[in-house]
## 1
Amino acid sequence: MNPYLLDRPAVVSFSGGRTSGFMLWNILQAFGGKLPDEVLVCFQNTGLEHEATYAFVERVSEEWSVPIHWLEYRVTDGEHDYAEVTPATASRKGEPFDALIQKKGYLPNPRSRICTTNLKMRTLDRHLKTQPAFLDGYTNAVGLRYDEPRRVHRLKADNAREEMACPMYKARHTEEDVLAFWRRCALFGFDLDLPYGNNTFGNCVGCFLKSKAKLELIAETQPGHIEWWAGAEALKITDGPGGKFRLDREPYARLLERVREQGRFDWPEEEADAPCMCHD
Ligand code: SF4
């Protein structure tokens, strides 16, 4: 059985990266080029993605004639909520993330990833609760590859109605397959156009789970993408550890200042990003 032929109802979690884009393409092919009504594609926007990611999400939708639902976290009357937006009205300055921080009263950190849980997973589920076909349960297809077995085995559903699916893992598709696919698409002028051609600028650009080397490169070349993070820490939303994204690193403002004054540090070897469920 083709692993891309998802059990329905199903949602395809598209993060705006090449991997989940590859997964979406294969799911489309499995369904004969057009998704049935009970298969939705959703992109949860934190407002902190790179402009190239936003352009890519729109382009995928246009090129493949597939509707993509842009969802954002909100707080309404003091309660967690969400909104469906369009590419034209989508947040670009971290507004959903700001709302979450104000609601929670502390910043996420590597041990408490309230951003993934609320901005991504629960925002998706809130939307699906408005879809009658999804009320009794649904498949959530995420772009985890065959070369990411640890992430696959750690993957957990966020609620009892959700059944996680990793069709790329089942199909044994690896990063090499993903890159080869997008190289072919690029021949027709269609690819994710992030700086350096890799995922350094992917997901939330300044994500605290990225390696120091990546964050320094971003601080040096596009410091505007680090400023929101420095501003969030400057809020001092709490005096305790929840006022910083990481206690084991310098604050983002110091990172910006240091890189501006001294340039990037020549790290002897690349530290891996911390494991994150915000897949690409
Ligand atoms: S990419 Fe990083 S900062 Fe953004 S939601 Fe995921 S874990 Fe949080």
## 2
Amino acid sequence: MERTDVLVVGGGLVGNALAYYLARAGVDVLLIDRDDVNNAASGRNAGSLHVQLTSSYLDKEAPADAERAVEAMISVLVQSIATWRELSRELDCDVELNVGGGLMVAETDDEMRGLERKAAIERRVGLEVELLGVNEVRAIAPYLGPSIIGAEFCPLEGKVNPLPATPALARGAVRAGARIARHRTLTSFRRESDAIVAETDRGDIRCQRMVCATGAWTDAILNRAGARLPGVSMPQHMNVSEPVEHFMDHLVQHAGGRLTLKQGADGHVIIGGGRPAELDPATGFVRVLRTSIEGNVAIALHVVPRLGHLRIVRTWAGIGFMTDGPPVLGPVPGTEGLYVAVPAGPGCTSGPFSARLLADHLMGKPPALDLAPFTIERFAGI
Ligand SMILES: Cc1cc2nc3c(=O)[nH]c(=O)nc-3n(C[C@H](O)[C@H](O)[C@H](O)COP(=O)(O)OP(=O)(O)OC[C@H]3O[C@@H](n4cnc5c(N)ncnc54)[C@H](O)[C@@H]3O)c2cc1C
């Protein structure tokens, strides 16, 4: 029977980053994915690096009991940007990292008041953000349309290109000694006296620790161990325009939700936030819906009118998975040696740092942040 110390199930950003950090520290790692690496959410996302809270906080008054969770979440996202900066220097390819700052733009007085409330929460937990009026926002982002009346600016936001990033982590992991087995599916697992035996469609693997870095499929796997990971799977799509000369430095989001915009290194404008997309449960294929393209592009044109002169050249869809926000990292109670690794809400942003937190825990090193707010036990009873 094949053996390893740590078996990582899932070859997305989180699984590969985990294999990378563990293998570099000399840990024996085997990663399996039922597909190719980077073929699920990690290879289909918009590459936006988010730090400010989402627009769902616009109408919240930050109840005191939620403030600790918000603080934990912001700490993860701030350190996630630092991790991406490090990776952009370490990895063997250009991951097109650009931390040019992010604007959440408002078109109505209500949205502006919501941004003020949100900024107050963020400042209380120590995040540096700035509220910009119409003249200030126009001065730094002259490409915005006339309906934009203000914005919240977070200097730590930006973008990365998810297509080269995950394969580069996989290459780095393999160079450091990790093994990666593509097209190998975990079908079940059992705890024996001295190990976990992972059953796969290509034979059993005996491991000391098994980490589920399986994104939207994690709940189904953990159910076998009697654990639950509640969350929402959200089929959504992306649009990409033809390339134009560089005119946008920021990540732009709309305070009403449902839009992210940024310009890639090669000039394409990446328009995210399109939903719903349609999941075919029989094949797992996620289809882009024309009505969602139209709705998403209509908001984009409002925010950046010059996009109206560009053609959409590509669309694709994927399944996003959201829990309650912060990452879910650490042991799964009831099965010794079983671990979970699901990144914080914006998982492209937080994937590598979330993986590093768990890697340090697995190696017995004190992680950069206490894992207590991130345990799966927080969902007990939900
Ligand atoms: C359209 C879209 C846009 C997004 N935009 C952004 C964004 O702009 N910014 C941001 O921060 N985040 C964004 N996200 C979220 C982000 O992409 C994800 O949170 C992140 O990629 C999750 O990484 P992961 O490694 O946990 O999961 P995944 O990348 O989904 O990887 C999980 C892997 O597990 C494998 N797997 C599952 N079950 C098994 C099994 N039984 N055996 C073996 N392998 C298995 C799958 O094949 C898959 O490769 C977006 C997501 C989508 C879908």
